[in-house]
Amino acid sequence: MKNLTTTGFLFLCALILCTSCTKMKKNNKIKQYDKFVTEVTEKHKTYTDADWKKADEEYGKFCVFFEEEKIRNILTPDEKKEVAKLNGKYQGLRLKTKAKEKMKDAVDWIKEKGKYVEGVVEGATE
After folding, report:
1. Residue 36's closest CA among 93, 74, 98?
2. Considering the domain boundaries, does residue 18 fall inside one?
3. I need a surface site. Which of 65, 76, 93, 94 has the fewest CB within 10 A?
């Protein structure tokens, strides 16, 4: 009977230790994610395509981590909101950057077509 009690106690201690480690890992990851999004926010205007590729990969790793069932189950409602806000902020920065790229492409296309029209007018009036 004593061995059963000792085994149960050791199992309980291991379970508490494991849960504690997961919570510490979760808290550390939230801090890392916040630091990552803050860095992207501060530097995104100077990012190259290679920088964005690296940032997107890092973002993906955070998403995978926070979608793990064991992590989702221990996030508090406030932590879930914080992670959601960080997700939204990163996606907003990406959207803004991609929109600027598309706008530049559109302006370049219009300039090119403007030169085409200018050439047509010149050709038709000679």
Report:
1. 93
2. no
3. 76
Residue count (the chain): 126
Q: Look at the chain and report how many structural domains it folds into.
A: 1
What DSSP string runs through 3-66?
A: HHHHHHHHHHHHHHHHHHHHHHHHHHHHHHHHHHHHHHHHHGGG--HHHHHHHHHHHHHHHHHH
How do residues 63-121 score in pLDDT, each as one tens digit? 999 999 999 999 999 999 999 999 999 999 999 988 887 777 787 888 788 877 777 77
Q: Which two tokens stand for residue 33?
A: 């994610």
Range of the domain at 113: 23-125
Tokens 């077509």 map to which residue? 113
Residue type, 100: K
